[in-house]
Design brief:
- The protein has no helices and 25 strands.
- It has 192 residues and is an all-beta fold.
- It has a single domain, classed as UDP N-Acetylglucosamine Acyltransferase, domain 1 (3 Solenoid), CATH 2.160.10.10.
- The strands form 5 sheets. A 9-stranded mixed beta sheet has the order 1-4-7-10-13-16-18-20-21, with no helix packed on it. Strands 3-6-9-12-15 form a 5-stranded parallel beta sheet, with no helix packed on it. A 4-stranded parallel beta sheet has the order 2-5-8-11, with no helix packed on it.
- The two termini are 32 Å apart.
- 35% of the residues are buried.
Amino acid sequence: MPPTAPLIHDTARVDEGAEIGAGTRIWHFCHVMPGAKLGKGCNLGQNVFVGRDVAIGDGCKIQNNVSVYEKVILGDHVFCGPSMVFTNVLTPRAHVERKDEFGVTRVGKGATLGANCTIVCGNDIGAYATIGAGAVVSKTVKPHALVVGVPARQIGWVCRCGERLSFEGEEAVCGRCGDRYREDGEALKRIP
C-alpha cells in the first residue's frame, strides 16, 4: 500500500519549511512552525503547537492542547497526553529574552507522557517510560521507569507495551504481552 498524503485540517496552519510525514494527521487549530519535522503516521489533536526545529518521530500521538516547544525531540511512537506541558527555559521572565537558554528535552521511543504532566526542560525521558497524569518531572527518567507525583518519583517499571511489571524473584513477566525483564543495577533489561 503506497504512503498516503498528510491530512491537514482547514483551520490548521503549517508554515512553509515544515516537513510533514506521510499519513500524518493535523487537526483543528494546530500550528506547525518552520523547520519542524514530523514523522510518518503521527496524529496531532486539536490546538497543538509545534515549535521551530522540533523533531517528532514516526507514529507519535500528541493529544489536544499540547505545545511542543523548540529543542524538544520526540522519538518514534511517543504518546503526549491531553494538556501535558513541555517547558523550554528554567528561569523565565517576561521582560528578559532567554531564547539562547532553551534546554533540550529528549523523549525516547515508545514513552507515554500522561495528561497534564509537566516536563521541565533539560530532563530526558527514557524509552518506554511512563509519566503519570499530573506528574512534574524535574530530573531525567530512566527507560521503562514508571514515575508519578510532584516532584515525580519512580514507583516501578513498565513493559514496552505499557503494563506495570511485578517481579517474582529476579524476573518479571508482562501479563499482557509475555515479555520478560530483569533488573540490572538501577536499569531494567529485557530478556530475549
